[in-house]
Amino acid sequence: MAVFTLTRPTILDVPRDISVDEAKRRIPDAGLRRHLSWGMDFDSRALSFDQVEEHWETEVKESHQANRERAKQGLIVQFGEHAIDAKIENFVAIGTKPMSVLAYHNEFFEQVRNAFVMGQYYPALVGACALGERILNHLILDMRSFFTATPEYRRVHRKDSFDNWDVPIDTLEAWDILLPEAVTEFRALKLLRHRSIHFNPSTYATLRDDALAAILHMRTIIEQQFGSFAVRPWFIPGTLGHVFIRKAFETHPFVASYFLPRCPFVGPLFGMGLAENGGWEVYDVPDYGDGECSDEEFAQRYNERDPAQVVTERPICERAW
User: Fewer Cβ neighbours under 10 Å: the N or C end of the chain?
Assistant: First the structure.
């Protein structure tokens, strides 16, 4: 068990019930830490059904086939054996479930995904469209207090919900909240939503295709805007194995609202391990000393850290961020 002698307040002493900003003001070594982007709600089982390539080594082929069989058995347990081939086809069509920092939105996306796998295409279609509208509304309600001095604020400050998607999409784009690809995907999903929610006889003929398209739009939105492991403007580039938030983006309204409260504040020697409840916990040096470092310096210290110095067990006074 690691034991540290502490001579001044550290991250281990920060109460849980204060804001992220207040917590960082109390930490003397805050300038040497960065937020670790963290989100483990993902599912890559769809990749297990990729076709075996002839040029693969025999051991690779056998391993892939074994993974495919395990994935199939898992889907049978989850969705039932009846029409399992069709269910697998639907499951694979959606692709992987992206890593994301979203909370209940992840749960709703999972429900939409499950409906599609089961062949319940209209609930999947409507659910994906409704989830898109819910996220847009949440973003407006969560972000608008940061932009009271903008012309767009006058259009959104009084309403608590928006069924005209152009208003929140245009507003969030003007505020530089939505990334360009997320804007494109929301506009495409908007067209599907209008055609599907309002009565349109042609929906019957294209139900599966429309449901799949809506889910893929929603999947890309989550991956682009809320992905926790990717190349994004708010992430430090070039770090190995983990992703960290750039210092300049810690005050960005979107990042501050959606990422920072869920992302541990760590130094370059942090480690991770399984908690008793089956989740993950973060271990770290309590005090890295005084000073500041740039994002590039932090990335270098993290990438070049000595494995022997990485904290691999919980200090006796450690607590989660």
Answer: N
